Amino acid sequence: MRDVDNPFSPSTGRRCPEGADEGHRQRRLESFPRAAAPLLGFARLLRRYGLAVAPEQISNFMQAVTLLGPRSMADIREAALATLAPPPDRRDEFEAHFQSHFYDNTSAVVEGDADEETRIKDDGGADDERTETEQSQEGGELSSALEQLSTRDFQRDDDRLTAFRRKLSAALPARRSFRTVRTPSRGKLDLRRSLREIVSADGDVPSPLLRRRQSVPRKLLLLIDVSGSMKLHTADYLKLAHAAVQGADRAEIFTFGTRLTRITTALRIRDRDQALARAAAQVDDWDGGTRMGPTLLAFLSVPRFSSFARGAAIVILSDALERGGHGELETAMRRLSARAFRLSLATPLASDPRFRPATAALRAILPDLDDLIDGSSVKSLTDFILSLARPAPAASTIWKRVS
Amino acid sequence: MNGTSAETVATSPEAVAQHLAASRYLADDSLATAIFLAIRLGKPLLLEGAPGVGKTEAAKAIAEFLGRDLVRLQCYEGIDAAHALYEWNYQRQLLAIRHAGDHEIDIYDDRFLIARPLLQVLRAPEQRVLLVDEIDRSDHEFEALLLEFLSDFQISIPERGTIRAAAQPIVILTSNRTRELAEALRRRCVYHWIGYPDAEREAAIIMLRAGDVAGATARAVATAVQTIRARPLAKPPGIAEAVEWANAATILEKGGSPWPEAFRRAIGVLIKDEEDLSYIAPELGRIVEEAMG
Asked: Which portions of this protein are annotated as coiled-coil regions (chain B) (predicted)?
């Protein structure tokens, strides 16, 4: 297998000089068999487009091609799929790059845009290069949203958010984990450590060591409506989301309007202005309509996302003014409610004392909600999220009493 | 077949596909190629896909055609080294200390070591197939622990030193993709995404797996299941459910229910979510009739 004359020999593949300086790389490249160049070039192309390809994977790719013959281009494609391992949601992109690199068919590379389809944007694993491209494509709407973020003064809200960030982790509802921690009293005997103590004390029996199951904060999931009707509140919500990601161990943030966008990774940046600018650049359905039902169903259809909802405290920040029928919204809320530890809807409309859940959509989803609260200010939202661990009567009970 | 090396059995993707078929597992070219490459490159195979597409079954079929024992490690949230690698039998150690009195005993002797799946695989004299099932359910820390094992096929036990694999195991990891796996894990593996099979392949799988199902029934089930999967269901039916549906409907039909009615009555084995059932119920008759036509 390690034949030096074989252009796809594994030993030549291992010489792949990733990480070396450009000149060094060039010299090494010249020493490569010419037939290996397209394979190397393909791996580099993928890397340029933000797909993570490790040097080890390139050498595996070459070995795989050798093992398969290759008898046809299909073998090279299979070898690339198996060893370079593109994530399933980027398979189309991978295929397009394969077509463009090996068949010179560049038309496939241009990304199609599904207008009415609910698309899901996930920034997980995006690299700097991709972020830069996205930032350079900011439109007018986006800029105005950014401007709004930077110019409005929320000094008092800022103090509240700082306090919120500090208190959040301890305030979230907790669950008991499988993991155990040492405890001075009220626990089960930790035989592993106790035995070590006994052995080190030459057989004397010291006081037994105890362990008990650890208590871990539940996950917090914020789903933020960025449609036109929520325009006034979006900036506050994003600031709140940033504080939540910074303060909680496990928080996930999504925005939705006509599409679903995951912005958690962007909000992990400590500097708030930078984080919000990056998050704002990722969302491309600012101030549009709301397709809450289909977007929430899209959220539930991605196993990685829907599993995050399991056992989590979910807060939806929206006025729930759904465009079109509310059948899908009802289904989505029922499924979310079945997964969640607590499902809450915070609507700015509830700040009006005359507010009642009277729209058909709200009436339909009310039985699935644990809380329907005022989402008009940072104060009401932070107070509410910090009280999530305390039990409260279901939303339908409260609103039946009021109306 | 235990004596033959895996490489001599897996001579080409086609040979792998044939062996799998003999083990009653129908793999497409892509999966057969990934399995072939994993065996020949000596890399772990990472299989991802929706629940019910046959990831675990693939591992069982691989173990069967290679003639190796399958050791399965089911992952869950909170799984740690004591569950996956080894544990000391503390009760026995304590008893041994008490009985020993003034004599010296080695409490880290083999007698006191409980081998968990990973250690079992390393200590086995022959090559084993190790299935690490649903790795996406475990914590990130466990994934990191597994990385050490997967790269060197060895375990360090502080009291005993390092134990290396007598025969490098064939490792298959499965994931339902409920969370993103670490890049470090993905790049150590040969990767394959298993999708739902097309209607033709699914009909063939049903024929192979179900007990006594007619060809026409299998084709109708496969077609109907494809249509049902295209709906936005909370739990889309897997291949195993499709096989069960074909079986159940056949039994009902032999018991006297006419065909479309038999399918409708057996729907509970295909769709196991009350909400999905009420969603699909109004359309079910039409879907079945179209599939049978």
From this structure: none
pLDDT tens digits along A34-85 = 778 899 999 999 988 878 899 999 999 999 999 998 889 999 999 999 999 9
Q: Which amino acid is at A295?
A: T
Using alpha carbons only, what angle is made at residue A42 by residues A36 and A46, rounded to the nearest 5 degrees? 150
Residue B47 falls inside a structural domain: yes
Examine residue B232 and say whether the peptide bond preceding it is cis (omega within 30 degrees of 0): no
- Give the chain B residue whose CA is nearest to the CA of A66: B37
Q: Which residues, 6+ apart, have CB-to-CB distance to A274 below 8 Å?
A: none
Task: Give the DSSP letter of residue A112.
Answer: P
* A176–chain B Cβ distance below 8 A for any pair: no
- Strand partners of residue A183: A210
Tokens of A297: 């169903």
Query: B96 in a domain, yes or no?
Result: yes
B12 and B98 belong to one structural domain: yes
Of A78, A195, A203, nearest to B33 by CB-CB distance is: A78
3-class DSSP state of A326: coil
Q: What is the pLDDT of residue A2?
A: 38
Q: Please name the member of B93, B180, B189 whose beta carbon is closest to the beta carbon of A124.
A: B180
pLDDT of the residue at B98:
81
Q: Same domain for B258 and B188?
A: no
Give Cα B120 distance to the centre of its chain: 19
Q: Based on the domain organization, do B254 and B119 belong to the same domain?
A: no
**B274-292 and B215-229 are packed helices; what angle lies between their axes, rounded to 10 degrees?**
130
Cα atoms in the 13 Å half-sphere on the side-chain side of B30: 14
* B181 and B232 belong to one structural domain: no
Strand ranges (E), chain B: 45-49, 70-74, 86-88, 113-115, 129-133, 154-157, 161-164, 170-175, 190-194
Within the 163-182 window of chain B, which residues sit less than 8 Å (CB to CB) from chain A? Answer: 176-180
* Structural domain that includes position B246: 199-291
Q: Please state, as a whole number, how many other Cβ atoms lie within 10 Å of the Cβ of residue A310.
A: 12
- Interface contact A304-B36, CB threshold 8 A: no
Mutate to test the interface with A, among B187, B193, B280 (most CBs of A within 10 A): B187
Question: What is the least distance, in Å, from the CA of B37 to any CA of chain A?
Answer: 6
3-state secondary structure of A239: helix
Phi/psi at A110 (5° precision): -65, 125
pLDDT in tens, A202-223: 667 678 889 988 888 999 999 9
Say which residue the tokens 């997967």 belong to. Answer: B150
Q: Spell out a b/e string for A163-202, using b for 16 or more CB atoms within 10 Å of the CB, else e.
A: ebbeebeebbbeeeeeebeeeeeebeebbeebbeebeeee
A7 pLDDT more than 80: no
Task: Give ipTM to 2 decimals.
Answer: 0.86
pLDDT of chain B, 293 residues: tens digit per residue: 455 788 888 899 999 999 999 999 999 999 999 999 999 999 999 999 988 899 999 999 999 999 999 999 999 877 888 889 999 998 888 888 888 878 888 888 889 999 999 999 999 999 999 999 999 888 878 888 888 888 888 888 888 889 999 889 999 999 988 777 888 898 899 999 999 999 999 999 999 988 888 999 999 999 999 999 988 787 889 999 999 999 999 999 999 888 889 999 999 999 988 878 888 899 999 999 999 87
B161, part of any domain: yes
